[in-house]
Structure formats: structure tokens, C-alpha cells
Design brief:
By secondary structure, the protein is of the alpha/beta class. It contains 13 helices and 12 strands. It has helices at about 5-10, 10-25, 25-35, 40-50, 70-90, 110-125, 140-145, 190-195, 210-220, 235-240, 250-260, 290-310, 325-330, and strands at about 55-60, 65, 100-105, 130-135, 155, 165-175, 175-180, 200-205, 225-230, 245-250, 265, 275-280.
């Protein structure tokens, strides 16, 4: 059996030289294919002979005749070189039209209401054999679920990511007030007085009634009366149509609800910070052609859905454009 020291003497160039010599049986033609001079190829062959302890090729006339040892090892060397070629060959471009499989996206319910319908419609057009699954999650579980493969990426207000994840910006999410104008007789835009004195409905998965709205309102010397709290945005439209109350929610879902349920929207009567909505995905998927295609599709759908609903925020393409780092920086 060949020892480790002997194996280390056989590099890829020697194996490639052997393979081409087996095919050409001529030093001059083999040297041309390898872009080597004849002295360089002869030196490589000499190293291989010394390492393996066999002549490997014997000159017969103007050509070379492989020895029994060369003939016996040639198939294994060809298999090894073919495997290396397959491994380093650029991956084939993703073909959505002929792909059978599942795309999975993690969406909180307000973004799901805004984007899931348009996303599945576009997917049915471009990837008719694919299935789309939306995975509900608490943003505190986003990292764990992503690592477990629960979804391809999640869309939320994510915390600082781990080194093996990528957090890419999508858009800054402003807030709007929404209410049923038939119940709550307030002119738009809402005044601070009307906002502070009206009943309010909040959305909180944990059941919390105090939000950033209350912090901003307190700075102005006001408090609001929260009369109901629901865990999901889907409960808001029926609640607002049942009672005279205001909900302050992300702009995308506010405009969606207003169109679907004939509700009134208004800018808040004071400044509220926008939330940075981002896409979180695994770094190992950064250059994968299927993953890149799906991220690009999602960003395109988000841009069109926001524009169609009247939202004015810009959408970043950082999440879908993959630019490989220079090798010196990527190591």
C-alpha cells in the first residue's frame, strides 16, 4: 500500500499529465494540450515514474505504449479527474419552469397579508410545478427556524444576525392610523386631540398594550385609551368595523385593509420612527441559483405590491443581488 509521503508527491498536474498521455500516446501532442513544453511534460512523467516505481509508458516508434501498470490505474485516475471536474463545474442556471419542489418563506402576519397573495400568483406563472408555503413565526425564533430549515428566508424586523446569516434591507416600514369612518367621525388627517381621545386597538402577540406609539405620545404629554388588544392583524378589520376605534399599524397592511374592508386611513398626528424590514437568509445560500432566483422574485413582488397599494417607501435590491467577494476578502 502506498504511504502518505508517496501520495503527497502525486499532485493534480501529474494525474492530468498521465491522463492526457494515455489519450494521445505522444509527448508532443500531449504537451500542446497541456500548454506545456516537452521538457515540462517529460519532467512530470519522470516524477510519476519515480513515485509509482514503473515505466508507465514505453516508446514504440514515434508513439508511447502504456505498461500493464498504466493500463490498470488509468480507469481510477479518469474517474477521479471526472469527479473533480464535476465538483468545480459552474452550477447550472435554475430553471423555475421545470422545477418541482417547495419554496418556504417566513412571514409575520401583517406582511403575509400584504405579499403572500401576489407572491403565490407570480410563482404560479413562473414555476407552475412549485409549491409555496408561508411559515408563521415569532421574530425571536427566526434564527432558530432558519437554521433548522423551516424556510428559505424570513421577512421581519430582525436583530443583528450571526456570522453565518445574511441580513439584507428591504424597506423602511412607516405606520398609518386606520379606522372605520362610519363609526368614528374624525376628519383626515387626524388631529392630535382626536387621536388622544379616541379608543384604540393594538396588536401584540404577547398581549402587551403599550407600544412605541405610547412612548411617542407620552413625550407630547398625552395618553391614549387602549380598549382591545388582538394577537394578529387579521382580527383588526372586523374589530374596527364593530367599534369606533383607531389602530396604528404598518403602512402596507393598513392600505391593504383599507382597500379590502372600506376603512379610512390617516397619517399619525405626530412623528413615529419607521421600522427597518429586512430579509434574513443563510450565508451558504447566498450564491445558490435557486435561492437567488426566489429572493429576486420576492423583492420584485414586494416592489409591485407596495406601489399598487399606494405605499411610497423605496425597496432595496440588496437582498437579491449576489456579488462574490474578491478571493482575498472571502477567505
Amino acid at each position: 500500500m502506498m504511504n502518505d509521503a508517496t501520495l503527497r508527491k502525486i499532485d493534480l498536474n501529474l494525474l492530468l499529465a498521465f491522463s492526457v498521455l494515455m489519450q494521445e500516446r505522444n509527448v508532443s501532442r500531449a504537451a500542446e494540450r497541456l500548454l506545456l513544453g516537452q521538457p515540462g511534460l517529460s519532467a512530470a512523467l519522470r516524477r510519476l515514474r519515480e513515485t509509482l516505481g514503473d515505466e508507465l509508458f514505453v516508446r514504440v516508434g514515434r508513439g508511447l505504449q502504456p505498461t500493464p501498470r498504466a493500463l490498470s490505474i488509468a480507469p481510477a485516475i479518469e474517474d477521479a479527474l471526472s469527479g473533480i471536474e464535476r465538483a468545480i463545474r459552474p452550477p447550472a442556471a435554475f430553471d423555475p419552469a421545470n422545477w418541482h419542489g417547495e419554496f418556504r418563506v417566513g412571514l409575520c402576519d401583517n406582511l403575509e397579508s400584504s405579499f403572500f397573495g401576489p407572491l403565490v400568483a407570480r410563482l404560479r406563472q413562473l414555476a407552475p410545478h412549485a409549491r409555496l408555503t408561508s411559515v408563521a413565526f415569532d421574530r425571536r425564533d427566526a434564527v432558530r427556524l432558519l437554521d433548522e430549515g423551516a424556510f428559505d428566508f424570513s421577512i421581519s424586523v430582525h436583530d443583528e444576525p450571526a456570522s453565518w446569516h445574511v441580513r439584507a434591507p428591504l424597506f423602511d416600514q412607516a405606520s398609518l392610523c386606520i379606522y372605520d369612518g362610519r363609526h368614528l367621525k374624525c376628519a383626515t388627517p387626524l388631529s392630535l386631540k382626536h387621536f388622544a381621545t379616541a379608543p384604540h386597538v393594538t396588536v401584540s402577540l404577547e398581549g402587551a398594550t403599550s407600544t412605541g406609539v405610547d412612548v411617542a405620545l407620552a413625550r407630547l404629554g398625552h395618553r391614549r385609551q387602549v380598549v382591545a388588544t388582538v394577537p394578529r392583524f387579521s382580527a383588526l378589520p372586523t374589530t374596527l368595523r364593530a367599534i369606533p376605534a383607531i389602530a396604528t399599524v404598518p403602512e402596507a397592511i393598513a392600505r391593504c385593509m383599507a382597500q379590502l374592508h372600506d376603512l379610512t386611513i390617516s397619517e399619525p398626528p405626530f412623528e413615529l420612527p419607521a421600522d427597518p424590514v429586512t430579509m434574513l437568509y443563510r450565508r451558504v445560500d447566498q450564491a445558490d441559483s435557486r435561492s437567488v432566483w426566489f429572493r429576486r422574485l420576492f423583492v420584485d413582488v414586494v416592489k409591485e405590491a407596495l406601489e399598487a397599494s399606494g405605499c411610497r417607501m423605496g425597496v432595496s435590491t440588496d437582498a437579491c443581488c449576489y456579488e462574490p467577494l474578491p478571493l482575498a476578502e472571502a477567505v
